[in-house]
Design brief:
Layout (H helix, E strand, L loop, with lengths): L11 E2 L2 H4 L4 H16 L1 H8 L13 H12 L7 E4 L2 H11 L7 E5 L4 H14 L2 E5 L9 H10 L4 E7 L11 H10 L4 E5 L17 E5 L11 E5 L20 H6 L7 H15 L2 H23 L13 E5 L8 H14 L2 E2 L1 E5 L2 E7 L6 H16 L8
Parallel strand pairs: 1-10, 3-4, 3-5, 5-6, 6-7
Antiparallel strand pairs: 2-8, 7-8, 9-12, 11-12
The protein binds pyridoxal-5'-phosphate.
């Protein structure tokens, strides 16, 4: 499948999850949209795109047409979903709209993505509220290991729980619906960071029972970079505002996020092409392949490196995070050195980080990857750990 991407065939690319990689056909579609915009820029941007000015020749704006296709893919009602440039923006919108005052609390876990924790901390600071970070033990073995510590952290002043659907560094599929059920029973709303979910596993957002869900389409749903979604339950929409105040201010959920000043809309409008590809390539079969390869990668790497992989299969999606041998190092500097050596000398791109006293590799299993890619990484790290001079010396 590699031929469907522009990816350098001389590089073993095991890092799809970080910034995605856009298939050729979606990029071609995006370019065609850009060309169309440039033929009559004002007409496209002011009328076709958003219907901001009359467009009697169209029933629906281009952004809504694209949004409707994306909503259908995610099981959502079109009215409950908007485009955002990325999940960070979507989560910031929700966090910034929380009515926080002194004594209020927002709950996150210590497996959350760092920038999201920073955003939650910033809104708490602004409102005089407290950010409560729940420690999760690792390895996690079942839903209770996530749900119980979160429930214990809830108080009558908890204004929101922020939970990842798939965690960033640890690549764990989290029991979001279980967390939501417990929180709902206590009247606490739940915000989900679904950065890695659309396109990597089946997703029906309303069935999760959460209040807000933001996800990226540019990671696994083959959209151009700079394309994500924000979904909000109908009862949450009136109090939810775009961080950018513009012409849609107080005009309703969709309008607020559709009129956010001038930017290149081609990524949003090309998103349906990515979804069309997912369907053409048999989405179910792709999910099965990616998950199977990720699971196999865990076995191959942990065996080769003599390390323990202790995550249950149902918590693995299209990525897997495996510990490196202890002599690979333990610090951020060690991680940076090994990662650079792998990239420059072995031509392998993989997410590698220091966490809880050792190094870890997070491997993405996209449909253009195969077992040979995993074997190459397994050998390269094992070789470096035998030969300390080559980038694995503690
Ligand atoms: C769990 C999680 N949340 C948020 C993000 C941020 O994504 P973006 O930079 O597209 O907003 C990432 C990026 O990898 C992530 O893994």
């Amino acid at each position: 499948m590699l031929e469907h991407w522009l990816l350098d065939p001389d590089c073993t690319y095991l890092n799809h999850g970080t910034v995605g990689a856009t298939p050729r056909r979606v990029l071609q579609r995006q370019q065609a949209i850009r060309d169309e915009i440039e033929r009559q820029p004002s007409r496209f941007m002011l009328r076709e795109l958003s219907g901001h000015q009359p467009m009697p020749w169209r029933a629906e704006s281009r952004v809504r047409e694209a949004g409707d296709r994306v909503a259908a893919f995610l099981g959502a009602r079109p009215d409950d979903l908007v485009f955002v440039p990325n999940v960070t923006t979507g989560l910031n919108a929700v966090l910034g709209s929380l009515p926080l005052g002194p004594g209020d609390e927002v709950v996150v876990t210590d497996l959350a993505y760092g920038a999201v924790t920073l955003a939650a901390g910033a809104v708490c600071e602004r409102g005089g509220a407290t950010l409560r970070t729940v420690h999760l033990e690792y390895p996690i073995r079942d839903a209770g290991d996530v749900v119980e510590p979160i429930v214990q952290a809830l108080t009558p002043r908890t204004k929101a729980v922020v939970i990842d659907h798939v965690t960033a560094q640890t690549a764990l599929v989290m029991p979001v619906a279980d967390v939501a059920a417990e929180c709902r029973a206590r009247g606490v709303p739940v915000l989900v960071d679904g950065a890695h979910v659309p396109g990597s596993r089946p997703l029906d957002i309303p069935s999760l029972g959460v209040d807000w869900y933001s996800g990226n389409l540019h990671k696994w749903a083959h959209a151009p970079r700079g394309c994500g979604i924000l979904w909000a339950a109908p009862e949450r929409q009136p109090a939810l505002h775009s961080p950018i105040v513009s012409w849609g201010h107080n005009q309703g959920f969709r309008a607020e996020f559709e009129h956010t000043a001038t930017s290149d809309p081609s990524g949003y409008l090309a998103a349906p092409e990515g979804i069309a590809l997912l369907h053409e390539w048999n989405f179910e079969a792709c999910v099965t392949y990616m998950h199977g390869l990720a699971w196999e990668a865990a076995a191959i790497l942990s065996e080769h490196w003599g390390t323990a992989f202790e995550i249950p299969r149902h918590m693995v999606g299209a990525m897997v995070t495996v510990p490196l041998p202890q002599n690979a190092g333990a610090t951020d500097a060690d991680a940076a050195r090994v990662r650079l050596a792998l990239l420059v000398e072995d031509r392998i791109e993989v997410q590698l980080h220091a966490w809880r006293g050792r190094l870890w590799a997070r491997v993405s299993a996209q449909i253009y990857n195969d077992r040979e890619d995993i074997a190459r990484l397994a050998d390269a790290v094992a070789r470096r750990c035998r030969d300390g001079s080559k980038g694995c010396q503690p």
